[in-house]
């Protein structure tokens, strides 16, 4: 069952209108503007709902992204470096999110710390036909992945919370 608040969040993230990849030069600039607008809206929604959980930024041409994501579990914050690249097949192919420090700690991850989203998220991405963007990837892909995987890794003793010192 989908949480009603989650559904509202997804409905309020703007869809992309420009289908372009980094190789499309001028169109990519328009797509990147749409991506940033959707990300800004998603961050605003998260802050309004007291559910701020990531920070990301891109290089100048919007092809390489990095930042941090975190998950609260048992009153502890688990924070990780996040990175990804926009491939030339984007937006028809979803981005592969990477959390390198979790590499090898869960079966739902590929070599190099790539988050496994193939079963649950990629069909949604394909169905969106290029209308989903980075904000949707975070909301529909990474957020649920963290919600399932982080508690399991914590309970198995595979990861520790960041110290407050």
Helices, strands, pairings?
Blueprint: H1 4-12, H2 26-48, E1 54-58, E2 64-73, E3 76-85, E4 109-110, E5 114-115, H3 122-128, H4 134-155
Antiparallel strand pairs: 1-2, 2-3, 4-5
Helix pairs in contact: 2-4
* Whole-number mean pLDDT: 90
Q: Poorly predicted ranges (pLDDT <50, ≥5 residues)?
A: none
Strands ordered across the widest β-sheet: 1-2-3
- End-to-end gap: 39 Å
Given helix and strand content, the structural type is alpha+beta
Query: Rg to the nearest angstrom?
Result: 16 Å
State the helical fraction: 25-40%
Shape: globular
Biggest beta-sheet profile = 3 strands, antiparallel
Task: Give a summary of the structure in a few sentences.
The protein has 165 residues and is α+β, with helices and mostly antiparallel strands. It contains four helices and five strands. Strand 4 and strand 5 form a beta hairpin.
Structure, described:
The structure is a single chain. This protein is 37% helix and 18% strand. It has helices spanning 4-12, 26-48, 122-128, 134-155; strands spanning 54-58, 64-73, 76-85, 109-110, 114-115. The radius of gyration is 16 Å and the shape is globular. The protein is built from four helices and five strands, in the order H-H-E-E-E-E-E-H-H. The protein is α+β, with helices and mostly antiparallel strands.
């Amino acid at each position: 069952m989908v949480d009603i608040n989650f559904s509202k969040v997804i409905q309020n993230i703007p869809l992309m209108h420009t289908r372009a990849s980094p190789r499309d030069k001028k169109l990519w600039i328009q797509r990147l503007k749409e991506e940033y607008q959707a990300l800004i809206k998603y961050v605003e929604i998260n802050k309004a709902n007291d559910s701020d959980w990531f920070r990301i930024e891109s290089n100048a041409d919007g092809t390489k992204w990095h930042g941090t994501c975190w998950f609260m579990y048992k009153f502890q914050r688990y924070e990780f470096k996040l990175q990804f690249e926009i491939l030339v097949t984007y937006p028809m192919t979803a981005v592969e999110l990477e959390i390198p420090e979790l590499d090898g700690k869960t079966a739902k991850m590929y070599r190099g710390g790539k988050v496994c989203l193939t079963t649950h998220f990629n069909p949604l991405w394909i169905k969106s036909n290029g209308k989903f963007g980075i904000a949707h990837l975070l909301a529909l892909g990474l957020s649920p992945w963290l919600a399932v995987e982080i508690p399991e890794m914590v309970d198995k003793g595979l990861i520790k919370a960041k110290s407050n010192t």
